Amino acid sequence: MKVFRGLPNAVSRAPCALTIGNFDGVHRGHQALLAQVRAAASRLGLDAAVMTFEPHPREFFAALNPNAKAPKRIANLRDKLGSLAEAGIDRVIVEHFNAGFAALSPQDFIEKVLVQGLHVKWLMVGEDFCFGARRAGNIDTLIEAGRHYGFEVITMPTVMNEGMRVSSSSVRAALAAGDFVQTRQLLGHPYSISGHVVHGQKLGRSLGFPTLNMRFRHRHPALDGIFVVQVHGLEDQPLPGVASLGARPTVDDSGRILLETHLFDYSRNCYGKLVRVEFLHKLRNEEKYIDLPTLTAAIERDASNARSFFRDQETTPN
Are 133 and 98 in contact, with CB atoms under 8 Å apart? Predict the structure, then answer.
């Protein structure tokens, strides 16, 4: 799969079957849409392409309006791209969403992006898709443009799961509730976050609980709190542990988000390794403690509760 930051250059502008969206989480609704894009591309002899955005458009506009809230992010860009590759997409355009892009009129978006930039021949979007400055463009606008410029426009109906609309919002709600069973049903797989292990302040080590640290480029994760997890990528089998995801209010007032994972009975050097942290169960919300001894006691309880979770899993009948 080829990934482009912005529109491809002229050499890479092969005609494509395209879909457009944020694809946060690449849930089952997204997967159904991507399967149709892949099928159309194969049928028509085109590249299967996705245009997505960084940052999320709502995140961009929230930064301009103190009364607006940025959406919680289900997936980082690495995981999103991995899911798109698994869906058989040939080409992903990660468009930088900025003031210039937001100001494009629907007509400019169609001409400069879809027709001249991407050579779209087949386009699938959701039924409520809007685009262009002030969201002035809609499905009817696209269908009319398709007749003029020679591309087909298909709409994707809503995907339901046990009577619930499958959407990024429903995934965020399940994660906020710590409901990983529901999250798995909506995503079609367990919820996890991947990234490289980086050096931290070594505070966990000094407290007796060394951690694998993963940084975030944004401050709006869909999860926060203390979790039972298992880590993939270090050994043949996933390794059990306990993790904290959040801003670490007891020891850091910068607001930076960090995922810290303590692995049980594991002491190998992991710096620079690419790992995937799978979330199994939420233990509690993140808290601010009055001092390090109180924090250490809380970590000890969390580790003990996480170990109990794994013991219970081993004794539960299938």
Answer: no
CA distance 8 to 92: 10
Sequence-distant (6+) residues with CB within 8 A of 206 are: none
The single-letter code of the amino acid at 249 is P
Structure tokens at 67: 């009364």
- Sort strands 120-126 and 16-20 into parallel, antiparallel or unpaired: parallel
pLDDT in tens, 240-284: 999 999 877 666 766 688 899 999 988 888 888 999 999 999 999
Contact 96, 54 (CB under 8 A): yes
- Tokens 């080590």 found at: 205
**Distance between CA atoms of 132 and 105, rounded to whole angstroms?**
5
Q: Would you mind telling me the total number of residues written for the chain in this entry? A: 318
Given a contact cutoff of 8 angstroms between Cβ atoms, the answer to whether 254 and 212 are in contact is no
pLDDT of 72-118, one tens digit each?
999 999 999 999 999 999 999 999 999 999 999 999 999 999 999 99
Task: Tell me the three-class secondary structure of the chain, residue by residue.
Answer: CEEEECCCCHHHCCCEEEEECCCCCCCHHHHHHHHHHHHHHHHHCCEEEEEEEECCHHHHHHHHCCCCCCCCECCCHHHHHHHHHHCCCCEEEEEECCHHHHCCCHHHHHHHHHHCCCCEEEEEEECCCCECHHHCECHHHHHHHHHHHCCEEEEECCCEECCEECCHHHHHHHHHCCCHHHHHHHHCCCCEEEEECECCCCHHHHCCCCCEEEECCCCCECCCEEEEEEEECCCCCCEEEEEEEECCCCCCCCCCCEEEEEECCCCCCCCCCEEEEEEEEEEECCCCCCCHHHHHHHHHHHHHHHHHHHHHHHHCCC
Distance, in Å, from the CA atom of 307 to the CA atom of 263, rounded to the nearest integer, reads 11
Closest CA to 50 of 97, 83, 98, 10: 83
